[in-house]
């Protein structure tokens, strides 16, 4: 998923021309008996609404020594959840899944012992989330061209990186990914997190062929219908969350991610609000990458307003990596604090190398004593005054992020 860190950087250069598609399949999971074998959700010690998690790649999870280091970090800090890669964009499934089609196409690459992973997570009282990349699936598209996005000459289409995508309108693709989700839940995971639940953003997308005409309206309906299909199938047997681009919170990017429609069916929605992914001028900020508090504050306010009237909860992906601006404990904590200002106590940290900033996290023995407004103490009047003055031109030390970063770095323990 490291390459998605750069996808938003490409968006302004990409013209999302009208593509071609056909009407989505009408699927009725609620009338099927194929889901009756899914066991009930295991006893969860962590409330899904209070998840504080980290992403773990399948390669790290497959190395029990490295995986136990992640568990040790959770033992020492406020962390209480893990997001583990089960199927990445290459299409490989990282455990011995009971999926006939996956075996047929050679997608089973049993790097990890999923039952041992679940056992260890339960032993450490961690909430378990399985990440599944859905429509960007290079292997399935290659092995089953009938399930792939093709070009207008009938050849399997590929993006700029040479990766193939499955057709979001294919019922068989829907069933394949749902069957994987169902199997993962049967092994004891608490939640399925769908990623790459969208149409392509790069490559000659105007040359994509889906079988008939396509437009943004039906693209949005297809993505949300897939979420509904999976939610109806799992029912109360497992939770569903969806990763979306941060910018999709308040605009149509032409990739099928309608924030409100997805929220109607998902239990949790996780916008990737990494400050480094926003352009200068977004939310009126001169340098979003250096303004982590401001980016999360603005994006969270909009997201919370969009989620009103739904049962879906916000659980944002936060940045614990550096691109241009160097990120450390203060930058990570400012993002968490911005969420908490809006009453959001659930979040996920992303680092492509699974190296997380322990200093940004509350030690386990102090977790119950933490200030309700964030991880470290910040004088309330200053912060509140700056928040009230958001109409000001946000630049330099007139931003919440820059003032708080300066004060926390020099004067306050965190």
Account of the protein in words:
- By secondary structure, the chain is of the alpha/beta class.
- The protein has a domain at 2-272: TIM Barrel (Alpha-Beta Barrel), CATH 3.20.20.
- Helices cover 32% and strands 12% of the residues.
- The chain contains 13 helices and eleven strands.
- It has helices at 7-10, 58-62, 64-76, 100-105, 114-123, 138-143, 171-186, 216-234, 259-263, 292-307, 329-341, 380-388, 400-411, and strands spanning 52-56, 81-87, 127-133, 150-151, 191-195, 208-209, 239-245, 268-272, 313-314, 316-319, 347-350.
- It has a nine-stranded parallel beta sheet. It has a two-stranded antiparallel ribbon with strand order 4-6.
- α11 (329-341) links the parallel β10 and β11.
- The two termini are 30 Å apart.
- The relative contact order is 0.13.
- Residues 2-42, 369-382, 387-398 and 407-414 have low confidence and may be disordered.
């Amino acid at each position: 998923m490291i390459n998605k860190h750069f996808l938003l950087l490409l968006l302004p250069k990409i013209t999302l021309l009208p593509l071609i598609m056909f009407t989505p399949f009408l699927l009725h999971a609620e009338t099927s008996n194929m889901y009756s074998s899914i066991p009930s959700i295991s006893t969860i010690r962590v409330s899904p609404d209070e998840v504080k998690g980290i992403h773990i790649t399948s390669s790290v999870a497959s190395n029990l020594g490295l995986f136990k280091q992640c568990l040790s970090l959770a033992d020492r800090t406020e962390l209480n959840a893990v997001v583990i890669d089960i199927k990445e964009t290459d299409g490989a499934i990282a455990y011995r899944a009971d999926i006939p089609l996956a075996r047929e196409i050679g997608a089973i690459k049993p790097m990890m012992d999923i039952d041992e992973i679940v056992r260890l997570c339960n032993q450490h009282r961690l909430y378990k989330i399985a990440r599944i990349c859905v429509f960007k699936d290079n292997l399935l598209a290659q092995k089953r061209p009938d399930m792939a996005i093709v070009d207008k000459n009938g050849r399997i289409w590929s993006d700029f990186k040479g990766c193939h995508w499955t057709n979001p309108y294919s019922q068989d693709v829907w069933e394949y990914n749902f069957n994987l989700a169902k199997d993962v839940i049967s092994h004891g995971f608490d939640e399925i997190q769908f990623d790459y639940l969208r149409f392509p953003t790069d490559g000659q997308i105007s040359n994509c062929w889906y079988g008939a005409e396509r437009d943004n309206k039906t693209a949005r309906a297809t993505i949300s219908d897939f979420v509904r299909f999976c939610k109806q199938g799992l029912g109360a047997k497992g939770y569903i969350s969806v990763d979306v681009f941060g910018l999709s919170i308040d605009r149509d990017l032409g990739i099928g991610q309608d924030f409100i429609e997805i929220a109607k069916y998902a239990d949790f929605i996780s916008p990737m609000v990494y400050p480094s992914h926003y352009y200068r001028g977004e939310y009126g900020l001169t340098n979003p990458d250096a303004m982590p508090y401001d980016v999360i504050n603005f994006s969270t306010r909009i997201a919370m307003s969009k989620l009103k009237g739904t049962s879906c909860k916000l659980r944002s992906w936060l940045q614990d990596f550096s691109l241009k601006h160097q990120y450390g404990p203060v930058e990570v904590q400012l993002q968490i604090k911005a969420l908490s200002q809006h009453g959001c106590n659930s979040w996920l940290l992303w680092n492509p190398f699974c190296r997380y900033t322990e200093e940004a996290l509350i030690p386990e023995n102090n977790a119950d004593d933490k200030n309700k407004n964030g991880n470290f103490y910040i004088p309330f009047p200053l912060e509140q005054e700056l928040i009230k003055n958001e109409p000001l031109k946000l630049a330099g030390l007139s931003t919440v992020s820059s003032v708080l970063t300066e004060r926390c770095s020099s004067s306050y323990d965190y």
